[in-house]
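User: Sequence recovery, please. Input:
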């Protein structure tokens, strides 16, 4: 069900933008696409540096708005730590005026109406479209509690900035130690099981001395899609060491990791197909384009609920993993965040993975996509379709 909140003026609109975004943008340019008078979400990017080509930045951002179905207008909001008449200001106008002008020109070229263009600075706020702006208006005008009062209960509460919430959850050091031991024992169990079959497996001396939990975890790897689907039902805050170990083990292996990404995006049937495709690819067959499309963000819209559940799970697994085993789950956190439209979080996870394993494949791909401003196609669907 849609929630309709009417903003009576620019101050109320600015009070509403963080609620639309789900965070308080800082050092950012936020673009709010419109269909008529209804918002279609928020696109956010870091404020470009002083030496950036404003027209190039504007072309990229407005190009993203053009991909939002049904968008016919946009609003521009620049959030800066500079003074209102600060960096990039022309003739005493609001800061980053050249960027705002470039965005307005790009929108006009694309046939998009500019509903508003606003600057929220360190010492006040105002409009780029008001030629008689003069002194900035006070920031306390934006602390409009009436907006919160009109929101559903689940959308109220304090908001962090765009980076808030990316950090890994805290875990007990003892859990990390138990997970490290579980990973080692799991490796031993996998090695023993892979060398014992039939009657030999039942009597194999290596199996007899292994931890039964390790054997159970190793046997669970016989059906990878079932493991990934069951994992969505686990309680991330109470992750058991061998469950965490099995997940970390899989996500460290690109072939199995890609199965997880496809499956968590679109269901266990796709996971089965992805695993079969991976095995065939290793034998020389071509990987099916329809499955690869999930990984590149060009498939049908995935379930945001499944992606968010998987992200919560993998964040806890990464937190429980020994540091040198974290690159795999961190890269998966990055992809899941990217798939959910949270590129700032995705970049943070990718950065953390690169610190551990600089040449990590998925991490490098995600860094490249984020740097290019590439978002999954489903991120541009209108809210009711998302």
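Assistant: Recovered sequence (386 residues):
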């Amino acid at each position: 069900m849609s929630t309709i909140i009417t903003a009576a003026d620019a101050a109320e609109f600015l009070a509403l933008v963080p609620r639309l975004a789900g965070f308080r943008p800082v050092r950012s340019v936020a673009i709010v696409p419109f269909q008529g008078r209804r918002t279609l979400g928020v696109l956010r990017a870091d404020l470009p540096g002083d030496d950036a080509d404003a027209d190039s930045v504007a072309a990229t951002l407005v190009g993203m708005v053009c991909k939002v179905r049904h968008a016919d207008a946009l609003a521009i909001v620049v959030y800066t730590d500079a003074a209102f008449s600060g960096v990039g200001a022309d003739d005493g106008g609001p800061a980053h005026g050249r960027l705002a002008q470039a965005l307005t020109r790009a929108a006009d070229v694309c046939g998009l109406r500019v509903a508003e263009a606003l600057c929220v600075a360190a010492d006040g706020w105002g409009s780029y479209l008001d030629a008689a702006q003069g002194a900035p208006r006070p920031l306390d005008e934006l602390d409009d509690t009436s907006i919160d009062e009109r929101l559903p209960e689940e959308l109220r509460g304090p908001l962090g900035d765009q980076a808030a919430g990316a950090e890994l959850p805290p875990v007990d050091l003892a859990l990390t130690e138990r997970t490290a031991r579980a990973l080692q024992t799991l490796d031993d169990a996998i090695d023993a099981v892979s060398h014992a079959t039939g009657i030999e497996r039942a009597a194999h001396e290596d199996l007899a001395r292994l931890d039964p939990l390790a054997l159970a975890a190793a046997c669970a790897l016989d059906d990878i899609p079932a493991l990934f689907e069951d994992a969505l039902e686990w309680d991330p805050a109470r992750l058991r060491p061998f469950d965490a170990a099995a997940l970390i083990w899989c996500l460290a292996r690109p072939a199995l990791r890609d199965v997880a990404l496809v499956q968590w995006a679109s269901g266990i049937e796709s996971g089965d197909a992805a695993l079969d495709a991976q095995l065939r690819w290793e034998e020389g067959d071509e990987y099916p384009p329809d499955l690869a499309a999930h990984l590149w963000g060009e498939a049908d819209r995935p379930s945001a609920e499944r992606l968010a559940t998987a992200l919560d799970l993998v964040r806890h697994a990464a937190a429980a993993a020994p540091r040198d085993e974290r690159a795999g789950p961190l890269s998966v956190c990055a992809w899941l965040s990217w798939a959910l439209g949270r590129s700032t979080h995705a970049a943070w996870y990718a950065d953390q993975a690169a610190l551990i394993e600089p040449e990590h494949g998925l991490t490098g791909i995600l860094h490249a996509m984020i740097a290019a401003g590439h978002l999954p196609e489903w991120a541009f669907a209108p809210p009711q379709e998302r």
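The first strand starts at residue 28 and ends at 35.
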